[in-house]
Amino acid sequence: MYERDPKASDVLLSVRGLKKYFPIKSGLTKKTVGYIKAVDGLNFDIKSGKTFGLVGESGCGKSTTGRTLLRLLEPTEGEVIFNGENILTYDRARLRQLRTEMQIIFQDPYSSLNSRMTVGEIVGEALLEHGMVKSKKELHERVVSIIEKCGLSGYHMKRYPHEFSGGQRQRICIARALALRPKFVVCDEAVSALDVSIQSHVINLLKTLQDDMNLTYLFISHDLGIVKYISDNIGVMYLGRIAEMAEKNALFDHPMHPYTQALLSAIPKSHPLDKKEHIILQGDMPSPANPPSGCGFHTRCPKAMAICSREIPVFNAVGENHYCACHLYNP
């Protein structure tokens, strides 16, 4: 069972039993007839100044997790302990104050920017809203400073989002998120909408900013190669739950869960002569509105046993800081 201490001095964010269910309405009376279990009981910790990578197939609940942590979506159940306090108990006033410490970088840099505002207005809006600058001169200096840190120039302040490339627009989004000097940032598929040639530049920028500003990231992605490069610890998510979690090298060198093994087998080898067994999963991921009984992965698992369809596996330690939810390792 995962029982790490959420009050440990190096843990900035601790998640316990986090759930987010979306009601399914039907009929003229809009009666609730079921729930989409997008996030179904997550437990993990993120250390200060580190990056926790969250990977999985589309629809597994990664983005919902990130939005729920920030309370952009209200959770159904659980705890999110940030700086030693459960932020799910915060009222609107305290939540507003929390926005200066927790930010998000969205997947699509164009749709997340207001096309009628200049870059200077976009980046400086939150500074004005939270009263973090006392004059127009200070606002200008703060905005220029952060956009230059993100690889843009001061003269870009007067331009509009449509005048930039995709990579530049994502830099604007990063500057907007970091303008308030937050401690924790959710990177929600932050590079998946960019060309491959630009992705590496943005990833390196995120790493540089993390070192310079002591940032803590939740990095959400479906690209295992990028996640391995930027993350310190990785959680593999399937159907609303974490199937396996470990330090990145341990996860890649010794994957334990059959789902993790299948994902890693799909990564192309860098050399054409390297031989590798590909694990082909049958069928699609079940719907979170009607998940299978027992282990959610048993309908596709090549190692499934009779118990897998009856009982949900416990999230057990299978090594040092290495956890896996699989009956193969349950006592």
UniProtKB/TrEMBL annotation:
Gene3D superfamilies: P-loop containing nucleotide triphosphate hydrolases
GO molecular function: ATP binding
Entry superkingdom: Bacteria
Record CDD domains: ABC_NikE_OppD_transporters
Keyword Metal-binding tagged: no
InterPro entries in the record: AAA+_ATPase, ABC_transp_ATP-bind, ABC_transporter-like_ATP-bd, ABC_transporter-like_CS, Oligopep_ABC_C, P-loop_NTPase
Alphabetical keyword list: ATP-binding, Nucleotide-binding, Transport
Segments forming domain ABC transporter: 13-264
Record's protein name: ATP-binding cassette domain-containing protein
SUPFAM superfamilies associated with the record: P-loop containing nucleoside triphosphate hydrolases
Family: Belongs to the ABC transporter superfamily.
Keyword RNA-binding: no
